[in-house]
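Late entry, written up from scratch paper. The run itself happened at the end of the previous shift, but nothing got recorded in the book at the time, so transcribing now.
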Amino acid sequence: QVQLVESGGGLVQPGGSLRLSCAASRSISGFNTMVWYRQPPGKQREMVATITKGGSTDYADSVKGRFTISRDNAKNTVDLQMSILKPEDTAVYYCNVRIWLGSRWTDYWGQGTQVTVSS
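Output as recorded:
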């Protein structure tokens, strides 16, 4: 039902900033919640930030105060502004949405974008 493409990853020094973007192939206005996940090397995937269609946000404790999620329904994008980056933020970051197909929920994921925080 939708394709998601993340972009904006790269190498950044500790304390720096980076902005990630998730572009959807169709309207996201009907999606209740869009989610950013990340998977550090050798660790399991974890939720980073969520945003509802009404604009309510939630963050993992580890990024609260440093990351900001935003949503532009007109552009079909969900961004993640990351500031005061730390080495432990190094991970592959994924955009996600869960969609009801009439008989089941299906998760849709982007291909991921690598964020590396290192001096």
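The chain has no helices and eleven strands.
(Scratch paper discarded after transcription.)
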